[in-house]
Amino acid sequence: MQGPQDAAAVGARLAQLKTELKITAAQESAWSAYAAVVQQQAEQRLAWRTQMQAQLQDPKAAATLDRNAHREAMLKLRDEHLAARAKH
């Protein structure tokens, strides 16, 4: 899995890809929709990671954390994100 990135890093990467792909005016609306989905997903992944780090910092929460359930939830989220990107 790709590591989390902040919104600025994702925005910069999307801008770079847009240039590399030479997105035309006719493709702009589709690109904008795709970029919005990618940006929202990056923010969601970062929030989830921040939440997980907070749980790990709390000894009581870390002791009861079900790491397998968390991993399964992250894999499900990744699959949902990939499916959402494929629509755009």
Overview of the structural elements:
It is built from four helices and no strands. With 88 residues, it is mainly alpha-helical. The mean pLDDT is 84.
Keywords:
single chain; 88 residues; mainly alpha; elongated
Quick gist of this model?
It contains 4 helices and no strands.
Overall average residue pLDDT: 84
N to C succession of SSEs = HHHH
Principal-axes shape call = elongated
Share of residues in strands: under 5%
How far apart, in Å, are the first and last alpha carbons? Answer: 21 Å
Oligomer: single chain
Derived structural class: mainly alpha
Beta-strand segment tally: 0
Largest sheet: none
Low-confidence stretches: none
In terms of topology, how is this protein built?
Blueprint: H1 7-21, H2 28-57, H3 59-64, H4 67-86
